[in-house]
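Our platform keeps sequence and structure together, in a single record for each protein. This encoding replaces a full spatial description with a residue-level series of whole-number codes. We quote a single record here, exactly as it is kept in our systems:
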Amino acid sequence: MVKQLRFTRVLSLVPLLYLLFTLAPAHALDCGRPANLAEHTVCSSPQLTWLDGIYNDSFHDKLLEDPSLANELVKPWMKGIKGCTNNRCLRDSYLGHIARLYAIDRVADLSGVWWNTTTPQGNSGRIQISNQNASGFRMNATVKGGIYRSEFNGEVSFYSGIGFTDKIILGGDCAIIVVPLTDGQLRVSSDSLRSCSLLLPGDMSIDGIYTRSASDPRPPATLLTLGILPDSATDNAFRQLVGSDYQKYVDTATDFDYDEELDNIGATVVAMWFKGMANSRAAIIMTTPQGQIWAMRAEPAAGGKGVLLKYSTTERNTAKMPKTLSAWQARFIKPPH
């Protein structure tokens, strides 16, 4: 029975794999060897190349969701693209076919405040949409990440129910797409690696899934939900150990990563920092499966005079600091002159 189930599963994948490799439009565009005038025009335009990537990503998502729509969707796309000979026609064609992929058949009411629910802890995205009419709306967006903050303000035009703009105030050619989803949310995509990069320092991003809400709907983050601590027991033990400093650790972790463990005791080490202030606002947590915890947090001293370090541990001998934490601590201690 097991062999039969496995064989059936393999067979069920065959049509999907066939569609992925034969119908997916991504194979058609090779900017090293454009096949026609339309492809040459797309490859010569950074914005159109970006739109091509947006379309192909959306197509593959839809293909995985409902393979039976592949033929119905890809044929009009190929016909529409090949029939264009200028940038505006190609842009409109891409946006129109992206709308079809998302089954957008009308202009939805998007007025209100929207929050990015997919951005990491310590980062946020807020979009206010106002003055909507049949042709578009006004967008006032704020993106934050650590000490970084950026504004995206401008007029957005509707194309087949999709919002599109490359007229961000002081944004150069920064291009953004706002796609209303069938579940009532918005998918926002930007050319963040090229035309929008100057507006997004510190690895910030305006991209993501947005929910309409008067305030940020994301639940408060914890060191457990962030993945910094491995389980509830360790999270609870850490709360008891550091007390009111717990929230300061969470607030510091706008970015974090695993660090090297120098003590060879099988511990997990996570270093975290506040974006833009890694040299003065940071923390490190070291835990073992046996329940041992060592932690240290750095914050700017009063008046900007140096850095304060606060050390916490479950061990009785607080004077014996692990090599891992000693090495991390040394980054913040200036050698005597």
